[in-house]
Recover the amino acids of this structure.
């Protein structure tokens, strides 16, 4: 018996040693060779491009999307990590890797307690915009509290007298779409003037518009679409009727056509030509944002035939731009990143027809009952000074005058707002300051996006498929139809394929910084997407290939 016990003990010890020895004897994970550096980083933000658009119409792509899907690293489960899912935050997150808690960009606009005004993310009262669209306040990146990849590229060579400084340029139909990705140290950010169709900027970048931009505007490329309706062979009526007479109505109409994206691409070419981007012995960065997809998507909703046609036209335009860039710089030298600032939810009335949940929540249905409830409990007064989306900013001076406890007032207000149809959760400022949020992703998005000085007193989440009463279709929620966005990399050092791990937009900036061997942006919280460096095996997919 003793011999049997001894033998058994020896076997167990041997098995244990066999189990642990490999753990100590296995070699460390293999390192990688330095990645080839691109000459040009090209970021493409297609405003409101839901990820599923890439898959739904995959077989029909022949241009830029086709190349990106076939030759790029496609992260199939890429999401926005923040809330709300709107343009300014998406464009700020792309190249900062930061959440609003650090970036300070808490929305397209918000109520500024210092000035007592509603301001936009790019509002700068110390600057003036060039062009006809000038309401007295200029635009700049000063409200962005962190650095971008472009800023880090600039700073990386600042102490090296022999280095060629990089050129960083942002272009969009929207001012925030151009400014946020370009950052503080950009050589220029340019956007579209609805009054004239010209590309403009602000005095933050130039006292006067550069001669090369004036020369571009003098070509009047925007006028070549006069009377040229945006049509689709499958539809009897034009998708967008384009006026035949110059003027603000004509130039504004181009937003709902692919012509606006053609103008963005043409201006991008002019920037490459002027600055010799990718041709100077430095790594340059060009950030293009295509806003027309967003404008049409708001108008018609994600299920419309017009949105499919606009997406196919964007594919064509990107393909033509890649061809031009290949001749100018060589696409083998260009690192391309495709993403979107947000998705979009279906039109509530369309959802109701197909027996899906959802509805519209009128602004007055949110704030009027809240004002009335606060007045009934605490006395008359202007209780809500402003708002950012569905987030109210309470009147602190009034609360102090009435000698009330602000936290108790906020708790009462939250309970009242929970009574509103379509509202599913309400977080108070006090909860978020204490980090008191459930572990689910929606709540964590809210927590990471709360900025103590800029956010409102309550963060209100609507039920899935509920939207505000503005556009026919819109975005802003923490649900997948708004947060699931493309994240595709194509270029030197990238292993093509489909990668299915869940990733966040905030991972793009640190990944680019890693490839470029520069410091990550100051507020970056994402991770490096090392798997596309050949460290992991991509998931095979059946799909159309170039030329199909």
């Amino acid at each position: 018996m003793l011999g049997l016990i001894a033998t058994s003990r020896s076997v167990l010890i041997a098995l244990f040693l066999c189990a642990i020895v490999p753990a100590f004897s296995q070699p460390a994970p293999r390192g990688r060779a330095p990645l080839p550096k691109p000459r040009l980083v090209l970021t493409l933000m297609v405003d409101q491009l839901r990820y599923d658009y890439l898959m739904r119409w995959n077989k029909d792509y022949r241009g830029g999307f086709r190349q990106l899907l076939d030759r790029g690293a496609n992260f199939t489960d890429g999401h926005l990590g923040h809330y709300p899912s709107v343009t300014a935050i998406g464009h700020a997150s792309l190249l900062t890797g930061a959440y609003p808690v650090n970036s300070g960009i808490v929305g397209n606009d918000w109520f500024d307690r210092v000035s007592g005004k509603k301001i936009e993310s790019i509002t700068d009262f110390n600057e003036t915009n060039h062009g006809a669209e000038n309401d007295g306040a200029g635009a700049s990146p000063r409200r962005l509290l962190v650095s971008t990849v472009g800023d880090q590229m600039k700073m990386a060579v600042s102490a090296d007298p022999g280095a060629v400084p990089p050129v960083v340029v942002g272009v969009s139909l929207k001012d925030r779409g151009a400014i946020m990705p370009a950052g503080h140290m950009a050589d220029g950010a340019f956007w579209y003037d609805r009054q004239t169709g010209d590309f403009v900027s602000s005095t933050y970048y130039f006292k006067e518009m550069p001669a090369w931009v004036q020369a571009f505007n003098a070509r009047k490329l925007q006028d070549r679409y006069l009377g040229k309706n945006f049509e689709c062979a499958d539809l009897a009526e034009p998708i967008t009727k384009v006026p035949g007479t110059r003027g603000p109505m004509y130039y504004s109409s181009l937003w709902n056509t692919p012509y606006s994206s053609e103008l963005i691409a043409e201006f991008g070419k002019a920037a490459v030509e002027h600055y010799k981007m990718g041709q100077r012995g430095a790594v340059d960065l060009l950030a293009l944002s295509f806003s027309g997809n967003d404008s049409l998507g708001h108008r018609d909703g994600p299920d419309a035939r017009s949105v499919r046609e606009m997406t196919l036209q964007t594919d064509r335009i990107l393909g033509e731009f890649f061809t031009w860039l290949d001749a100018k710089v060589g696409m083998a030298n260009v690192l391309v990143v495709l993403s979107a600032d947000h998705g979009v939810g279906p039109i509530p009335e369309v959802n109701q027809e197909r027996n899906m949940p959802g509805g519209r929540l009128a602004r007055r249905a949110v704030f009027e009952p809240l004002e009335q409830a606060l007045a009934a409990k605490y006395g008359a007064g202007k209780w809500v000074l402003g708002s950012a989306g569905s987030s109210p900013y309470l009147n602190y001076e009034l609360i102090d005058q009435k000698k009330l406890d602000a936290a108790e007032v906020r708790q009462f207000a939250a309970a009242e707002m929970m009574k509103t149809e379509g509202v599913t959760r309400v977080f108070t400022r006090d909860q978020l300051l204490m980090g008191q949020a459930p572990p689910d992703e929606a709540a964590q998005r809210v927590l990471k996006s709360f900025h103590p000085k800029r956010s409102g007193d309550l963060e209100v989440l609507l039920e899935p498929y509920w939207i505000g009463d503005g556009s026919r279709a819109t975005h802003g929620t923490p649900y997948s139809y708004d947060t699931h966005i493309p994240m595709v990399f194509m270029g030197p050092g990238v292993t093509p394929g489909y990668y299915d791990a869940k990733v966040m937009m905030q991972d793009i900036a640190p990944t680019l910084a890693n490839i470029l061997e520069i410091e990550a942006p100051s507020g970056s919280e994402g991770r490096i997407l090392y798997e596309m460096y050949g460290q992991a095996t991509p998931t095979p997919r059946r799909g159309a290939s170039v030329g199909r």
